[in-house]
Amino acid sequence: MQTLKSRVLVIVALVAMSGWALFPRTEIVRVKRDGVFVLDTVKRVPLKRGLDLQGGMHLTLEVDQSKQAVADVSDALDRALKVVRTRIDEFGVAEPVVQKVGTDRIIVELPGISDQQRAEEVVQKAAFLRFQITDESQALEKAIPRIDGIIKAKGITIAAAPASTDTATAAATGLTALMQRADSAAAPAGDSAAPTATEGPFRRAILPGQMPGQYLVASRDYAAIEAYLQRPEIQEALPPGKDVRWGIDSILNGTDAYRALYVLDSRAIIDGTYLVNATPAQDPLEGAKVDFQFNNEGGRRFRSETGRHIGDNMAIVLDDRVMSAPTIRDAIGARGQITMGGRDLQAAQDLALVLRAGALPVPLKVADGRQISATLGEDSINDGVKAGLIAVLAVVLIMVIYYRFSGLLAVGALVLYVLFTLATLAGFDAVLTLPGLAGFVLSIGIAVDANVLIFERIREELDHGKAVRTAVEEGFKHAMSAIVDSNVSTILTAAVLYQYGSGPVKGFAVTLVAGIVASMVSSIFVTKTFFLVWLQRARGQQTLSI
């Protein structure tokens, strides 16, 4: 009885977990809109339909020659295609379409993806990672008078972001307070680094930061400073051998926000070409982060370079944006981490995704992004669903008519097989397509194979005059080896498909493994439990209808 109760409790727990996995629910997520993170409610759909059943998202990618001139566009797209396909595969087993069209475009079609902005960011992100030491020579300080002189001589005027009188007054007050703290900590005695009314617009907007090579720009001045930095004559005036990069972080002073601007040594101590792995993580104190690992050569180089710069600040630069600039306390080996500057875990997951896939060889832009309708007509979908239902009904009738009461128990286990398989696919964020549904219906027919083996073995034991309970035990026992051998060999084949396949091949492999595991659980464990429950409740002489 204790064993039987345990088996029943396991089945009830599996049914409860499967029901939870398949139950639609609303989740609160943090999304980025117009450059600002906001909380939004998203309805979670456990099993999305594929491109053929409901359509999805269509993206057309092209080489962005405004950022980088590319001579051989076709060859560049061939190399970019591998990176894009690897990144899209990280979305799960959604059976996407990623292919090159002509010589100048990549087509990406994602079924069941509703967050178009996130998808575009993932496929467009260059993911070029560099580690650079922040400037300690105050090179920008020396270049600022020349920059302001160019602005004045050429009459360059750029309007600052509009602000109300109250906001401007509060910002000016906060700016002065922040300047005083920064000057007292960073400026040498007798040297006035604070801007004055006679200084130029660049000097007035740039404040010393909290570490060497860091400067602060009020949010209202960000657009103006960025516009100045984009002008060719200003770029020529910037200190040679230095890179000027914005940080992703902002610093709050009361109600005022400041953007961080970094001056870095142009020579990178190491870049992302040595990266072999990146995984997202959540830290209670630091928030979301990405743990990364270099290969052996990269680890040796990173340890050597960081050992020479102990006490300096090292900027982690991704796509020309400084993620963070920690102080090097000790030599760092093959492992490190990137903090996300207050961004959420999804941002860390996306960053780890693109770092693992590698950097794009050329910048890409989205030439066309839209939602597309189902590729199959409604009549075709209805006919396919109808055929599947007829096939399932045929399997049920054959089992019940041929094996009678025992077949009825197998049908009950088959219902749980369907539930377990769908829950497993939902756990992998699988997308249902019409061919996938056909394969699923086929797997239902295959799922009863194990029951056929078991029932035929039970019949043999009954023909030899054994009692019902003994025949059931012997039937399951002797059929087990054949069932396990055939299923394990199929699982190994599916594992190879998943390891070396991509897109639809991986989706098929996951569906196959999910069906096999659910089939073994339902045909061996669940069906036997049903038999044991029936035997426990039966009274008097036991006869089995099989």
Account of the protein in words:
It is built from 16 helices and 19 strands. It has 546 residues and is an alpha+beta fold. It folds into three domains: 2-22 and 376-537, Multidrug efflux transporter AcrB transmembrane domain (Multidrug efflux transporter AcrB transmembrane fold, Up-down Bundle), CATH 1.20.1640; 48-124 and 364-372, Alpha-Beta Plaits, CATH 3.30.70; 131-187 and 202-357, Gyrase A, domain 2. Strands 8-9-11-10-16-15-7-12 form an eight-stranded mixed sheet. Strands 5-6-4-18 form a four-stranded antiparallel sheet, with helices on one face. Strands 13-14-17 form a three-stranded antiparallel sheet. Helix 12 (378-427) packs across helix 16 (504-537). 31% of the residues are buried.
SSE topology:
Layout: H1 2-22, E1 25-33, E2 36-44, E3 48-49, H2 51-54, E4 56-63, H3 73-89, E5 97-101, E6 105-111, H4 116-124, E7 129-133, H5 139-153, H6 165-186, H7 201-205, E8 207-208, E9 214-218, H8 219-230, H9 232-237, E10 242-253, E11 256-265, E12 270-271, E13 275-283, E14 287-294, H10 296-308, E15 314-318, E16 321-324, E17 335-339, H11 345-357, E18 364-372, H12 378-427, E19 431-432, H13 434-447, H14 449-463, H15 468-500, H16 504-537
Parallel strand pairs: 3-19, 10-16
Antiparallel strand pairs: 1-2, 4-6, 4-18, 5-6, 7-12, 7-15, 8-9, 9-11, 10-11, 13-14, 14-17, 15-16
Brief description of this entry?
With 546 residues, this protein is α+β, with helices and mostly antiparallel strands. The protein has 16 helices and 19 strands.
